[in-house]
Amino acid sequence: MNDILTEKQYQAELLGILRDQNGYTIRKATDFDRRFAIDREMLFGFLNDTQPETMEKLRKIHKDRLEDTIVSFINAECTKKRGSLLEVLRHGVELSGHKLELMFTKPATTFNKDLMRKYEMNRFTVMEEVWANDKERIDVVIFLNGFAIISMELKCNYAGQSTDDAIYQYRMERDPKSRLFLFKAGTLVNFAMDLHEVYMTTKLDGEKTFFLPFNQGNGEGVNAGAGNAPCEDDYPVHYMWDDILTKDTILDLISKFIFIQTSEKENEKTGKVEVKESIIFPRYHQLDAVRKLLADVEENRTSLNYLIQHSAGSGKTNTIAWLAYRLATLHDADNKIIFDNVIIMTDRVVVDRQLQKAIMGMEHKSGLIRVMDEKCNSADLAIALNGNTKIIATTIQKFPYIVDSVQGLKNKRFAVIIDEAHSSTAGKDMAAVTQSLGMGDELYQDMEDEIAAELARNGKQQNVSMFAFTATPKPTTLQLFGTINPNGQREAFHVYSMKQAIEEGFILDVLQNYTTYKTFYQINKEIEEDPKMQTASAKRQIARFVELHETNIAQRIEVIVEHFRTTVMQELGGQAKAMVITASRQAAVKYCQAFEDYCSKKGYKGIRALVAFSGKVKLPDDTEYTEPGINGIPEDQLTKEFDKDDYQVLLVANKYQTGFDQPKLCAMYIMKKLKGVNAVQTLSRLNRICPPFEKKTFILDFVNSYEDIVGAFAPYYTTTLLSNSVTPTAIYDLEAQIDAYAIIDPDDVDKVNEMLYKEKVQSADKKKINFCLDKSQKLIEHYSIEKQREIVVDLRHFVRFYEFMIQVSSFEDTELHKKYNYIILLLSHINIKHPGPGFNLDGKIRATQFVQKKQDEHTKSEIVAKPVVKLPSAETFGLTPAKEERLSEIIAAINARTGKSYDSDVAVKAMLQIRDILMKSDKLKASAKNNTVKDFEFSYFDDIDDALIEGLEQNQDFFSLLLNDEEIKREVLGIFTEEIYTSLKQAAEE
């Protein structure tokens, strides 16, 4: 027998807290007018107390019928087609020429004492055991000024019941047509709550009623997940009465968060546009993020930047809309507006219209928001920034064009919200943003002052705060926008993790049904001669030859089509769709052709494909293809057409791998190497849920290992932490490396910068600049082609790292900035010629014996969070070491040639182990001291077998291959010859 807590006791406890702690009045259920879902006494008490003069005027007009007239009129406003209780509460009603306010929100400032007094006169009441109709009794109903706004079904876990039982009651035992629950006219939100968890819905719709979790999350950081954390002194759902059901929060929700979303969709059968309305109530993490950001900004004004790490499925568009709307009217403690403008930036070329609809749903105010769409140019954006529009939505690509055109913005304060803060925020686009919004049109004494000011514009501007949203923060993003935690690591200001989103059912775990395939084949020469060629170039040509080989594509298409037909097609009531990720535009065209050929040959109906790629593609037969030409539909109509039942498969090449939201996608077939953030974003196209269906996902991967994909997801599964920071030392090391090439004359750097910073660059100046750059070009051309490429890589490396460093630190060095300006011009000036025609393998090799062999099937996700990431040093910034890359390519070729599957990372480590063994050889040291590198090779390869035998125990299979195959051994280990020779020769001479 339960003697701890009953449902009735829990209910009584809640009402007591609302009365004693939150200032509610407890009313009897008999005071409820079920016909209009109101408490008449509370409504008219509020109206008479707050607006006595208006009520007196209306009483003269309507006399004894006044109360019935007001109630009927408000009810008509709530229940009409475009009406709602939300609109009535927010904007009041106008009756007989007189305005009645039905609630008073908290004023933005404390200046208006009368508004503050009326705000405090709002009436909050609660009833228990409320009869919605003759058959249905609701546990708890909350009222604002007499209007029923919240219903709650409570369950007690000690009595053997939970939120599942409450949800069942709402779905199966509550009439959506009763006035209390009537959509838009009745309660704004309905909570199912037990002692541990809370769920919510804004629309009762019988069995189709969709409930969302409304929980804080269990744990923090890497331990964060679904649910609520245990609480020693209270129930885990205590935040409901401590926060959500307080008077201030409820008024805040009604006036500034809840909105009615309208979406339009064309009915495929009738062709008519159907309008669907939804009441949007913030999920807990959305409310929490916005309120914490506002509180911090209120205190720190424009002095900080913020990173918000919210997973896919977090409702990011609405969170951004709420944040933008609130920042636009935010005042500080001195009642002063904090931001003059709020700018929403996205990486997408076409700004999301959904954002505009969401903000307009919160406030129907003309001129509040302007979307700079594809028809607007940078001049339009400059005008908007100088104007009075409070919220401007645009693309980051427009900013570089207005750096010089926007004047006088230094006295304005900006909040910049970045949607998907990725790599574009770490380079010149981001620098352009801070330049545009930062310091204005100062007059400079000389070039040195102007460069110093330019450096200052690049860093954090005192008049600009940035709010960066991403699910997958890179180290550079964490450095730019992250907050330093007590351990000295940079982290997001607010986190809603992938793990929590999966556990709460907002997104799916796409790694649950993951199958890998391996392609085996034999490469043969078709010519007699045996030409020497660059290994890396040859490997790339062979890989591309195999990738586009018709037999390979035909076999893979067979696997794809049959898997889709037998396993995927019946999902989502027969509406399931799939995406094929190809490695190139040519591959996309050839896979599309093979898809059509196979389905036609088999006589399959009901499986049709669309292809997506940019520009024009020419195949070896000289036929040219475009996406619209193949599909027979305009490019901008593709997503709309793919949503229809006519098409099931989308074959893509570098399109729709990010930002594409299609809930019907159930399967993905991968023919492309995916790494890091790109892997996470691509596979996440599958993770959208598709109510009311229980969606399953399937991935067949022909290229990547499951372990590599799991590794790509690990840093973003919970929270992401940056453990190191950027320092100037590395950039100076890079500068020294470039100086050592002796390709840049310091005098030329000064001359070019003098001309660059003139008020107007004359034609003669341009010729002088060109002369200086030509000198550097000729000095570069004195080196071998390989060395020239290395120099260009170092120059690009310098530019990228320098741009990033001045973004994230207060680093200033005028001389270094002048060199940066010069290198930028030099990189656009130089053009490294290819050393002759090279060796073309077309028609000279033949691939046979293709086999697509299934490797591993993973039916359970194995993600373990690995939250710590590191910022690359200047030496490795964004680059893979050439030797390691070459080794990986050679090992991949060995695998294809031998039918083996040596792990590239393991093999590379093994090679480095052999290198270390060889470095300790006294025999080789003596040889290096006394021989040229060419003669050294003989003793080097003699000693390799001893090193292989020494390491044989740990890497038996791979080392045995090298011992038994002289050609492969020389190919693999020849990479280290020069490195070992140089090191040993230096050591011998010291």
TrEMBL record:
Q: Show the InterPro entries listed in the entry.
A: Helicase_ATP-bd (IPR014001), HsdR_RecA-like_helicase_dom_2 (IPR055180), P-loop_NTPase (IPR027417), Restrct_endonuc_type1_HsdR_N (IPR007409), SWI2_SNF2 (IPR040980)
Molecular function (Gene Ontology), one example: DNA binding
Cross-referenced SUPFAM superfamilies, in alphabetical order? P-loop containing nucleoside triphosphate hydrolases
Which Gene3D superfamilies does this one have?
3.90.1570.50, P-loop containing nucleotide triphosphate hydrolases (3.40.50.300)
Instruction: Give start-end ranges for the coiled-coil region(s).
Output: none
The biological process GO terms on file are: DNA restriction-modification system
At the top level of its lineage, which domain of life is listed? Bacteria
User: Sorted alphabetically, which Pfam families does this protein's record hold?
Assistant: HSDR_N, SWI2_SNF2, T1R_D3-like
Q: Where is the Helicase ATP-binding domain?
A: 278-496
- Family annotation (PANTHER family): HELICASE SUPERFAMILY 1 AND 2 DOMAIN-CONTAINING PROTEIN (PTHR42927)
Name it.
Answer: Type III restriction enzyme, res subunit
